[in-house]
Every structure is written in C-alpha cells, then in structure tokens.
Amino acid sequence: MFLNSLSGRFLMLTILFVMLAEVLIFLPSIARFREDYLLSRLERAQIASLALLVTDEMIDEDIEAELLANAGVYNVALRRDQARELVLSSPIPEPVHQSYDLRDPGAVELIVDALHELTDPVPRVIRVIGEPVRDAGLLIEVTMGTESLRAAMIEYGLRILWLSAVISVMTALLLFLAVQRLMVTPIRRVVRAMQLYAEAPEDTRRIISPTARVRELNEAETALQSLQNELTGALRQKERLAQLGAAVAKISHDLRNILATAQLFADRMEASEDPGVKRAAPKIVGAISRAVNLCETTLAFGRAQEPPPRLERVRLAAIVNDVVDAERLAAGDEDISFAEDVPAGLVLRADPEQLHRVLTNLIRNARQAILASGKPGEIGIRAEEDEATWTIHVTDTGPGLPPKAREHLFQPFQGGTRKGGTGLGLAISVELVRGHGGALVLRRSDATGTDFEIRLPKSEAVLFGQDQKAS
C-alpha cells in the first residue's frame, strides 16, 4: 500500500507539516485582516462625520442615514477638546455586546478576538474605539454590526486556506520528487543489490559499488560492500574446505591401505636380531600405527568432525619423549636443542593419540620457525599441575609469529605461521584440546620467541559434559 511506503509517509507528513505552518500563518493573518477592517470602518466614519462638521452640524436625516450606511456603522462619536460628542447617530437594533479598543492592541488579544468573531454565528452589535486619522481629535468611537465583518473574515479565510492548500500540495509534490530521487531510488538500488547478491553470493560481479551522493547512503553502501566481500570470501573458503575435505578423505583412504602393508613389514622387523633395528622398530611401528589411525580419523572428519576423545590415564613424559625423539630425528644436524621439563610421575586424563597430535603440531611448528630464522634455537616442553588443571607449555626461541598469523591464528588456511603453511595444524590442535574441555592459547610471541599453553581440566564433570557435547 502506498501509505505504508517511505514515499507515501513522507508525502503525508510533508502535507501535514505544511498545513500546520499555514495554520500558524493563518491566525495572525486573519487577526490582521479584522484589525484593518475595523480601522477602515473608523476612518470611513470619521470622513462621514466631516460632512456634518462642514455644515455646522445641520444635515438632513436622510443624508445622515446615507452617510452612516456608507460607513457601515450605526453611530459615530468624537472626543475633541476633552468633550465627547455624538456626531452621527441612528437607532441601534440591540444593546452593545462587546467593546474593542484598537489604540494599542496586543497580538494575542487580536488573535483571540478574531477567533471569537469567526466562531460566533449570531449577529452582534459592537463598539469600536480608535484614534482619528490626521490628529482630528482625541478619540473616535463607532457602533456597528458584526454580520458584515464576519462575512468578510470568512471570505478572506477561505482564500487563505485555498492558497495554503495549493502551496501545501505543490511543496509536498516537489519534496516527494526530491526524496524519490535523492533517497528512495538509492535505497531501492541497495535493496535490489542485496536481492541480486542473495541469489548468487559467490559471484563477485554482484557485489555493490558505492555510488550514492548522500553521505549516509554512501556509508550504508560501503558497509554493505564490505559485508558482501567478507561473506563471499567466507563462502569461497568454505567451498575450498569442502573440496579439500573430499580430497583428503580420498587420499586418506588409499594411504591407509598403503600404511597397512608397511605395518606388516614393520612387524617383521621387530623379529630382527640387529640391535639398531630392534631399537628403531618399535618407534617405526608406533609411527605407522598413528599414521593409520590418523587416516581413519581423517575419513571420519571428512564425514562430520573430529571424533570425541577416548579419555584414559596417560603418562605425559612418555608422550613428550616420543614426540621429541621424532622431531630431533627430523631436525638432523640443525643446531636445535630440546629441553624437557615434565615430571616423570605426572599422569593426566586425555586421549593419548590426540594429545600426541597436538604436541607434534606445536613442536613441529616451533622447529620449522627456528629453521626458517637460520639461527640456533631451543624448544622447551614444560608441564605442571594444580588442584584444577594440568598445564603444558611449548616454548621456542624463534623469531615469533608474524602479525597476520596472530590475527587469524587458529583459523585454517589463514593462520599459517610460515610461508607455504596452511594453518591446519593449529586449527586441528585447538579443536582437539577443546574436545578435552580445555583450551589452547598463545601466551607470548615476540622477537625472543613464542609460548603456547595447553590447559586441560581435571574436573570429570567438565570432561563429561564436553564429551557428551562432542558425541
């Protein structure tokens, strides 16, 4: 409906406000008209009285009646030389109803008298007092009827109202057209742009380009453009993640079969009599087993999300030692040292495979950061506990994380800490820790190194609730 639109409501409000302004103009105008009308009657009465003064106050009754009729009054009285004199007179049809003094009237008084005159349909006889023109005496006083006065005021008021209506309509129409061009059309353009974008948000050609000249509308278009750019980027990100998930699931399926064959050969290596093979075989078997398990969980992740942790009592020192041995082997001859400060008797409740993955991601990132700096460095793993929490710190003396990496640290494909990195390791790690009911946070990262902290709660209620939520 037109009245429910912005244009319709603006048009109605414009007409209403213009009419209100015209009413405020009408009241003083009609009061001024009434005052001028009464003053003209006083002036005409004074002119009529001059005819009597010229004839030395001798005048025929018919001429006197004609002079009074031309002046539109019943009686004329003048005050001269401190004496009041009835100059012209005729019978008054009824007693005087009201007296009005026009020598020094107030604006409010004139408006109130005019409204009273307009709203009183009964013909009255009134007395009007004023000052004679050209100083022809001290005071002039007439009695007259209100019928002709009220008729003249109504006629004048109708002309004012008709003119006001025309001005209101023209003003409203011009404002309506201006609003249509300056506001409504740009707003419709923004709405249309939103509708087109909603049909295909991945199409960058449908992102709005700010063109509005009105500052507020231009700001709205700019904000919408920013929102659309972010949403399009997020949709593309999700699409890439979905494609990557499908690809990883396929690769993991085939890789699992390959690793299963390698596991068979590794099992046979355990029977070797070679001392070096005997020492390396358990680690190789363990690494292949974790790789097979990772492939299986990756397949599950491709269908839904990381599986809930299988909580059990594990010795943290054994897991840390296993991860550090693998990373020390990967570091080779590089000048990187490892420091382990984990109490041998520290036992915590966690999923050993998931905790192994978290520590591997953090320590590997630290090793790669030190290697990228080209300087010697140290990686430290420290653990402690209190009554409520197990805390693990993974620190390094590398160059620290770049600002962009810190801004999107735990977001896949955005929080990569090195060139070519995907940021998946930290994204997976924070999800795994969160599945334990804990938190993975960045405590410090500057030119002296980086400190990641893993907090795992001891409360079984927290763990149970998180486990239930994950399942």
Write a brief structural summary.
The protein has 471 residues and is an alpha+beta fold. The protein folds into two domains: 2-173, no CATH class; 305-470, Heat Shock Protein 90.
Keywords for this structure?
single chain; 471 residues; alpha+beta; Heat Shock Protein 90; 5-stranded mixed β-sheet; rod-shaped; transferase
Please provide a written account of the structure:
Strands 2-1-5-4-3 form a 5-stranded mixed sheet, with helices on one face. A 5-stranded mixed sheet has the order 7-9-10-12-11. A two-stranded antiparallel sheet has the order 6-8. The longest helix is centred in the middle third of the chain and has 55 residues, at 215-269. It has 2 domains: 2-173, no CATH class; 305-470, Histidine kinase-like ATPase, C-terminal domain (Heat Shock Protein 90). The model is unreliable at 461-471 (pLDDT under 50). With 471 residues, the protein is α+β, with helices and mostly antiparallel strands. A hairpin with a 2-residue loop joins strand 1 (75-80) and strand 2. The chain has helices spanning 6-54, 61-71, 107-119, 147-199, 215-269, 275-303, 316-331, 352-373, 403-407, 424-435, 460-470, and strands at residues 75-80, 83-88, 98-101, 125-130, 139-145, 312-315, 336-341, 347-350, 377-385, 389-396, 439-446, 449-457. It contains 11 helices and 12 strands. Helix 1 packs antiparallel against helix 4, helix 4 (147-199) packs parallel to helix 5 (215-269) and helix 5 (215-269) runs antiparallel to helix 6 (275-303).
Number of beta strands: 12
Structural shape: rod-shaped
Biggest sheet record? 5 strands, mixed
Mean pLDDT score, rounded?
A: 80
Give the helices and strands as they follow along the chain.
HHEEEHEEHHHEHEEHEEHHEEH
Radius of gyration: 50 Å
Strand order of the largest sheet: 2-1-5-4-3
- Domains, number: 2
Query: What class, by secondary structure content?
Result: alpha+beta
Indicate the percent of residues in helices.
55-70%
Uncertain segments: 461-471
Number of helices: 11
- Cα end-to-end separation: 52 Å
Strand content: 15-25%
